[in-house]
Amino acid sequence: MLLVGELRASLEPSALRIEFTLGDGAGVGASYTWPEPESDPGVAVGVTGGMAHPAKGRTDEWWVVPIETGTSQLGSIALRGAQGPFAPLAESYLRALAAQTAIALESARLIDVYDDGRRSWQEVVDALSLALCIIDGSGRIRRANRAYSELMNVPPAVMVGRPWDVFAMPKWRDDVAAVLERADGVAVEMRIGLRSFRVSAFGVGANESSATVLLFEDETEARTLQDQLLQSAKLSAMGQLVAGVAHDLNNPLASVVGFADFLGELDDVPSNLREPLAVIREEAERAATIVRNLLSFARKTDNQRTATDLAELLESTMMLLRNTLMASRVDARLEVEPDLPPVMMEASKIQQMFVNLVTNAAQAINNTGRPGTVTLRARRFLDGVAIEVADDGPGIEPEVASRIFDPFFTTKAEQHGTGLGLPICQGIVREHGGRITVESVVGSGATFTVVLPQGQPQPEPPATHGVRPVTRRLRVLVVDDEPHILHYMRSTLEAWGHEVEVATDGEDALSLALTERHDLILTDLRMLRLGGRELYEEIVRRAPRMAPRVFFSTGDTVRGDTLTFLESLDRPWLHKPFGLAELRALLSSAARAAQGRESGGFPLPTEDATSA
User: What is the CATH classification number for the domain harbouring 349?
Assistant: First the structure.
């Protein structure tokens, strides 16, 4: 409108038309005509060489000047003189106005392009998860994206033009300053609160307008996953360590249990020693049970379900957690309804689930700062069983209880929870066709209820009539690298009337075994020079007739495929520590196998017939 006013005031035309387009003909167009077309119909202007020609049927003359920049024509100005053609001075004035108009239009176009680019840049960088900030040579923030402003908790408009260190936390200001000074793109790791970042900077430009781009890459989730993998690796290594420690404990426990049994059966043991012997055996059995539970928990699952006594599984679970609960001042109670049906399950997974539930309950109580109680109750329910894990802790808020089984949802601190424990428990229960629910009253504790179906009914086990007494004197070769076990086995077997040879490892035993003199070869699995499995394989290769006479004892069924190997032989084996009843059962099996063989043993003396 300023242009129109200038033209009408300076040249006093009788008619005027202005047309222009922004964006090289593809942008916004505009036009202006005076007077209105209705009052001056039929006006048409033809342009040749920038000079106007009269419209057809008209006697007066139009004057047209293009609005152009470089090779681009942005529009045109057309005027009709009131008294005929304009004077030459007016032509120069009009062309000057057209040139100024072209400059204004081109500037408007460039500003529009710049605004579009700025908006596009802002949209792109705001979509990045990286926190990005551009800092000029004086240390002031030139631009920042949304992620950076959220990290600093300051709106972007407030940061622009101000020094970057005004918004930096004192804890990491010096570290960021060092990164900016280097500006070599090399990232350093930093922690801001509970979050982990990789911080880097690199320079752009090489003159007075140079700047530095500062980047914060949030690696909290990746670091959490890395820590979880590391913890998983530690737990795996701990499982192997537990297996080794269990094996090392089972060997001395085997001697303690065995000698306590052996002495307890002697008639000439003073009566005042029988009770101490019973206590020794009970405490050794208690230690053996703890070790057995550790091995069971550490053993890799084979995805096979077996009929499991739930009472025994819950009892072993509580024993595993006994020390942990005591340290948290938590009293553990177990209430099991008698005659619960066996449940088809993967025992290791179900035990893992109950360990998690009981541990969570203990942690909830521990957070109150007072002692508490966790109770496991098992009862019949429909066609299966229901097990409740109840605590008297602080309880669970309703909004939390509704999300408690959601993956990665947790109310624990970052170092104490990942939000996966309860979802895993729910997954294990669902795999077994059951369900898990939670009920809670804030301030009065929480109760998790696990319902498990019984599964397919199992056939009744064949009736047992006890172990038959061994009526044959057997030639026995005992192979073990523990001197006390060899002493205990020789003393016991010889007292029962059997002929005994001993060897301290598989290499020493091999030459004795190949003589084919023995009715029973009882060998430990893990020994230094030649283990029991390797000894068996050599016997199979060199004296196959002796292979069925080889039986095994071991204190470790976790490592490798030990358990699979033992079960593949389909014959009895002894798990250390073992009692005299288990040893008698093994001897009976060997004696039955010796029957009918020409190299079998010979009858025991009558007085020894019932002692073994």
Answer: 3.30.565.10
